[in-house]
Design goal:
- The protein has about 450 residues and is α/β, with parallel strands linked by helices.
- It folds into two domains: about 5-170 and about 355-375, NAD(P)-binding Rossmann-like Domain (Rossmann fold, 3-Layer(aba) Sandwich), CATH 3.40.50; about 175-350 and about 380-405, 2-Layer Sandwich (Dihydrodipicolinate Reductase, domain 2).
- Helices cover about 35% and strands about 20% of the residues.
- It is built from 16 helices and 15 strands.
- It has a nine-stranded mixed sheet with strand order 14-13-12-11-7-10-9-8-15. The protein has a six-stranded parallel sheet with strand order 3-2-1-4-5-6, sandwiched between helices.
- A hairpin with a 5-residue loop joins strand 9 and strand 10.
- It starts with a helix and ends in a 38-residue tail after the last helix.
- Mean pLDDT is about 90; it is low at about 1-25 and about 330-340.
């Protein structure tokens, strides 16, 4: 699929003519059960399932799928304890393995929650939409441009079928961020000259290799540390900051990006092949720049923020604060409050963003309406991949080059006895991208 800039910027609304409605009158009436299936039973998947159950009293979780049975067992135990009346999953609807998603989609569910590692998002989404299911898709939606093009095509099909696709780029559903972005778009800080997103945090989890594991199982168990599975943390984590800044900039893609990125602390083979720091500069057609910093190194100064600099002032997006010709703070008096403090201080007045995204998904399904977040979730994923690619290669990469990239990080086959795309060398170390040596594909 040849994805142009226009394809990524196409609005989610159906312009002008009629919508091809697949209207479920019973669901719209709000009197029947909406059957939900979860694919990917890690902590985020279990959280999404819990939020989906809380979103509508008629929701029932009826099926689970994961590559590993122990992940299903852990999540099912947790969810049954939290929601004893809305979890109805028996052993026959617990599907295990690489093809488990196919069985779940065919099990009679109405809504599918996709929370497996990002490598699998394109194929899982395509199967769900082809089968006529509404979808919640965690971020990011791919690890390479090939995958993103697939997702863009699937989201277009979802529009035609009037199926909802709600993205796990959860800050778009955050009350504070929504109100702040609205004011920025209304001109509160004037024309934006520069934006900075920082996600400098510490180390993460790791699962030690077990003697009975194949190489594929080790990598699947530690999916975060392998680019073919996670996309690297500039894609898997920093996408949130990139997405918020892209939103502030009107969801216009950059012209190009260049970066200084590397692997300084995360050098043990157990950390796979991803980097531990990325510093990316995105340049836009109007001269605006986005500075995107992401670091995962223990014992360092941490910061998680987005700052927008304009001709009339500045905005601290995470804190919901605007200063300059207009001074405004979301729901608070003066004080240096983080976004999380703002939400805590208002207590029940602000619903958590992870809950809001599910609330709006299920409300749309009941109303026979269509929410389709496909445009921005594809674009923000590709912007993040662009930054990773600039860092891995050490080259300036244009947006047009990125949209046409032929890189496909998928393995030859998905099986625990198969070889993953990234294999350790004789020294046990995995090959790592080298700026100035690694080539753009």
């Amino acid at each position: 699929m040849n994805v142009s800039r226009r394809d990524f910027l196409r609005t989610a609304a159906v312009a002008g003519g009629t919508v091809l409605a697949v209207h479920r009158s019973a669901h719209a009436a709000g009197s029947d059960i909406l059957k939900v299936g979860l694919i990917g039973c890690g902590s985020r998947g279990a959280g999404a399932a819990s939020n989906a159950i809380n979103a509508d009293p008629g929701v029932k979780l009826v099926a689970l799928a994961d590559a590993f049975s122990d992940r299903i067992e852990g999540s099912l135990k947790q969810l049954k304890k939290l929601h004893p009346d809305q979890v109805d999953v028996d052993q026959a609807r617990c599907f295990v393995g690489f093809d488990a998603y196919k069985d779940l989609i065919a099990s009679g569910v109405d809504v599918v929650l996709l929370a497996a590692p990002p490598q699998f998002r394109p194929s899982h989404l395509a199967a769900a939409i082809a089968a006529g299911k509404h979808v919640f898709a965690e971020k990011p939606v791919g690890v390479d441009a090939t995958g993103v093009r697939s997702v863009a095509a699937t989201c277009e099909l979802a529009r035609k079928k009037n199926l909802c696709v709600v993205s796990g780029l959860c800050w778009r559903y955050d009350t504070v961020i929504r109100e702040t972005i609205k004011r920025v778009h209304d001109g509160a800080i004037g024309d934006i000259l520069a934006v900075q997103t920082t996600r400098n945090l510490g180390s993460l989890w790791h699962r030690p290799r077990q003697p009975e594991w194949t190489e594929m199982e080790f990598q699947m168990r530690n999916w975060y540390y392998f680019t073919w599975l996670s996309g690297d943390h500039n894609v898997e984590q920093q996408i949130h900051g990139i997405d918020k800044c892209s939103w502030a900039l009107g969801d216009k893609p950059p012209l190009k990006a260049w970066a200084t990125s590397g692997r300084q602390i995360r050098i043990d083979p157990k950390y796979g092949d991803i980097y531990d720091h990325h510093a990316v500069v995105y340049e836009y057609a109007n001269g605006t720049r986005m500075y995107a910093f992401a670091r995962q190194q223990p014992g360092c100064f941490n910061d998680y923020s987005e700052v927008l600099l304009g001709t009339k002032g500045r905005c601290d997006l995470q804190k919901g604060r605007i200063e300059g010709e207009t001074n405004w703070t979301q729901g608070q008096q003066a004080g240096d409050l983080s976004s999380f403090s703002v939400r805590k201080a208002t207590q029940g007045a602000i619903r958590p963003m992870h809950q809001v995204e599910q609330d709006e998904l299920f409300a749309a399904i009941r109303a026979g309406k269509c929410i389709n977040n496909g445009d921005y979730m594809c674009q923000s994923t590709l912007v993040a991949i662009l930054g990773r690619t600039a860092g891995y290669t050490g080259q300036e990469i244009t947006w047009e080059e990125m949209t046409q990239s032929k890189l496909d990080l998928s393995p030859q086959r998905y099986a625990f006895d198969a070889a993953p795309p990234t294999l350790p060398g004789p020294d046990g170390k995995y090959p790592v991208a080298m700026p100035g040596v690694t080539r753009f594909v």
